[in-house]
Design brief:
By secondary structure, the chain is of the alpha/beta class. Helix content is about 40%, strand content about 25%. The chain is built from eleven helices and 15 strands.
């Protein structure tokens, strides 16, 4: 799915925007605070119904009024499609083909991933970010994932509430078979997704970083020696003391290693950026293979923290990726002086091709 037109009203500093996008490879250039990252945020918000910056909906509005709108026109194998997202003080509203829609409808129309400076959290910080990365891919390729996820979350909420209320073992244990069955189902989907992606990611990292020997291991979130149901039963008293369930796929961990060391102890921030790029591109190619959709890739501050030969390696990977790509940079210099990139200048909330 390719975004061919982007429109916005009162989104951050863009009072009015109507931008035709003719190309697959696109580069936004401009000074600090010109609005380059806000353009990527606009695309991300339209396609995922939230900001990658963690901003609340009201934080995205410009100075004109307490409201903002983003609209996109797409072209793909299913023909032209449209989507829109509008926020006002009454709440958020999504539309697809001019009709009321859910956030899930927008997510499924044009899957979108981003590589931006905050993504370093996925390597440097807790496991939540790495679980989210796996789950985003599983969601788009495995239709059984969401029903299993809803079952698991419902059972987890119920068990945690009973634990906090210090209810009887009989009441708590009544939710454990459902929690265990849906939890092990979720873990199986995650394992399958990672196993299919693992070799491709390792080979791509080796090409980008010129270093071999990478490994990815998904730990389930419960003891490898027991089933999840057995683990829940064994640790019921511990969970009762803590007031929450400590075993399950909500505690899973994706461990990334370079050789025998955890990756965050081994490589620089620039190298971390390339590892993340390899993971995102590989996952997006797997979605194309399994679901027939090449996600849109957004790369904010493309040149930051990368020596020029690493920039060249990353750009080469993005150029052969079949999906649509949007990059930002201060200027079109070095490897970005590429005739395949459609160039847009961003100045104080205005964009010109």
């Amino acid at each position: 799915m390719q975004l061919t037109q982007l429109k916005a009203d009162n989104f951050r500093r863009f009072t009015k925007l109507s931008l035709p996008i003719p190309g697959r490879l696109n580069l936004f250039v401009g000074a600090n605070a010109a609005g380059k990252t806000s353009l990527l945020e606009m695309i991300y918000c339209l396609n995922r119904s939230k900001s990658f910056r963690g901003s609340a909906y009201q934080d995205l509005m410009g100075p004109a009024k307490a409201q903002w709108t983003v609209f996109g026109r797409y072209e793909g194998e299913r023909g032209p499609q449209t989507a829109g997202l509008q926020w006002a003080e009454q709440g958020i509203q999504a539309r697809r083909e001019g009709k009321p829609a859910s956030a899930l409808d927008l997510v499924q129309l044009a899957p979108t991933q981003i590589l931006e400076p905050g993504m370093h959290r996925m390597i440097a910080e807790g496991p939540t970010y790495r679980r989210s990365f796996i789950d985003w891919g599983v969601f788009h390729v495995e239709p059984r994932f969401m029903p299993a996820w809803r079952r698991f979350r419902r059972a987890l909420r119920q068990r945690n509430q009973l634990l906090r209320e210090r209810r009887s073992n009989a009441e708590i244990s009544a939710w454990e078979p459902e929690l265990a069955e849906s939890g092990e189902e979720l873990h199986g989907y995650r394992l399958e997704h990672l196993s299919r992606m693992r070799q491709q990611v390792s080979e791509r990292i080796a090409r980008l970083l010129e270093e071999p020997d990478w490994s990815f291991e998904l730990q389930s979130g419960w003891s490898a020696e027991h089933s999840l149901l057995e683990d829940l039963e064994r640790h019921r008293e511990r969970d009762r003391r803590l007031g929450m369930t400590q075993s399950g796929p909500h505690r899973a961990e994706l461990r990334i290693r370079a050789g025998k060391l955890a990756v965050r102890h081994r490589i620089s921030r620039g190298q971390q950026k390339l590892v993340l790029a390899a993971m995102l591109i590989s996952q997006c190619e797997l979605l194309l293979q399994d679901a027939g959709i090449a996600p849109i890739l957004l790369v904010d501050d493309f040149s930051a923290e990368l020596a020029e030969h690493f920039q060249a390696s990353l750009l080469a990977q993005l150029k052969v990726y079949p999906g649509q790509v949007f990059l930002t940079a201060f200027e079109q210099s070095g490897v970005l002086k590429d005739s395949e990139l459609a160039l847009f200048h961003v100045e104080q909330g205005r964009v010109r091709a």
